[in-house]
Amino acid sequence: MQIDAVIDEETVLQVENVSVYYGAFPALRGVYLEIPKNKITALIGPSGCGKSTLLRCLNRLNDFILGARVEGRVRFGGMNLYDKSVDPVEVRRRIGMVFQVPNPFPKSIYENIAYGARINGYQGNVDELVEIALKDAALWDEVKDKLKNSGLSLSGGQQQRLCIARALAIEPEVLLMDEPCSALDPISTGRIEELMHELKQKYTIVIVTHNIQQAARISSYTAFFSTDESRTGQMVEFGPTTRIFGQANDPRTRDYVEGRFG
Amino acid sequence: MTPLNLKPDEQVDSYFDSNLAKRYWFDRVFVSTAFICTLVGLVILALLLFDVCKDGLPRLSIDFLTHYPSRRAGQAGILSPLVGTIWLLVITALVAIPIGVGAGIFLEEFAASSLLAKVIEVNIGNLAAVPSIIYGLLALHVFVRLMNPITGGRSVLSGGLTLALLVLPIIIVATREALRAVPEGIRQAGYAIGTTRWQVVRDQVLPIAFPGILTGTILALSRAIGETAPLITIGALTFIAFLPPLVPLTEGLRSPFTALPIQIYNWVSRPQEAFQIAAAAGIIVLMAVLITMNATAVYLRNWLQRTRN
Questions:
Q1: How far off is chain B from A143, nearest CA to CA, in Å?
Q2: B202 vs A184, which has greater pLDDT?
Q3: Do A116 and B183 touch (CB under 8 A)?
Q4: Which residues of A touch B191 (CB under 8 A)?
Q5: CB spacing of B192 vs A61 below 8 angstroms
Q6: Gap between the Cα atoms of B219 and B290, Å rounded
Q7: What ipTM was estimated for this complex?
Q8: How confident is the model over B205-218, as pLDDT tens digits?
Q9: Is residue A186 reached through a cis peptide bond, with omega within 30 degrees of 0 on the bond before it?
Q10: Exposed, middle or buried, B37 (CB in 10 Å: 0-12/13-18/19+)?
Q11: Among the CATH numbers 3.40.50.720, 3.40.50.300, 1.20.1090.10, 3.90.1170.30, which is that of A2-103+174-257?
């Protein structure tokens, strides 16, 4: 396993020896990873290698899976996210998430965004916040005249940008994206990728993707995950995307990024 | 390239023997059988309705609805059973809906696959299958005897509580089914923007599940008002010439009562022809109440689904 030190980069999340168990089954073992600030970090690897599992560790969404257990530490702003004194609800406000299938609430476009702000006690002007979030998600021009319409009336790509806007509205520091384009057509995918380039100015992005070209196009850093003989996931290699795709050290990484495997 | 052969009858050199003619024949057999099954149900229902309406419709009148039962069949009305049924309905709804929906939410959203929830789930399934007379026996002891100082014995309150007990498992199961139908993505979306479990349930999951819960609940209440056995067990009367007073409510709740199915049962068991006819008219009234409730359920569900989208 080779892990490049993230030299000259400020990191926001430090994953230290994280293992995840579903019941007795170890789904992911011994991951060390540092997520650099204001960069896009891609997690790639074949199905079942634990990359989504790791992503869900970063905002404690695994808490809801019965029998899931996380060992090790995830440091965020000097705190261990799994420390007893850390409130998972607060963690999820500061580390937002976008899912594989667009999942807007069956409410108006406006309400989709305002809800999270209101529930988290936002004191400012909600109308402005909605506008800013929609602009940041590059959706404002398309929906500004129909904010009262249902979020479900939008197209798949628009719904996904609405979900991104919803995540941005609570002003997170990190944005986790779990295969955000896998349910979208290539044009919508292109728009989301452009958007991610914009967003990394303000946010740190971690994205899980099955699309190797997408990882190569958008990310600065890439972590490659794979499974061992007992189907337990592990991180094989981590480094700048150019190196992972150019001269990976591990033959498994080379095979995967060159499309010979998985 | 050989031309594609799409004619079923012609022999094609292939390992596939698609035998479409035979498969279509099976299709037709199945559709016909299913249609006959549907028809049997419909025809029987139509015959029953026709029979009841033939006897009962001429007897229906405003007088029938506004008069108390009487020993003289010609003057007997259905006022007190109708009002008794409405009292039962309201009490049952007020007791069973909060408890049933609350239990359903707890079991589905908060206790999901814990051992406790599984044990309770199996037991609720069993409770839903318990014959209603057993509930009547339980209620006779608990509500009529033990809780006599509160319920006033064989009162409309005891009756309502009994029926609430009876439909509680149905409401719980309906609530759970409705909650389970809410996509998991909605909950995840809620958690991911920093909401607590209860906020997700209250603001996102319940509004989506509400039409389903409502339909299940109204259907459960429809079942409750058709019940006769448990009410007879706890001692509902068959001849009541007064209405439970609304003021003071405590007195009304503790009044003796009767209900539509009980009155119908009583009239049917009389030898006089005129009472049989009154029973038929009573059945029409009961059916009207039931159909009204079911129609309300369908209408409310459709209306809620429209307003949501």
A1: 17
A2: B202
A3: no
A4: 61, 64, 92
A5: yes
A6: 9
A7: 0.88
A8: 999 999 899 889 98
A9: no
A10: exposed
A11: 3.40.50.300
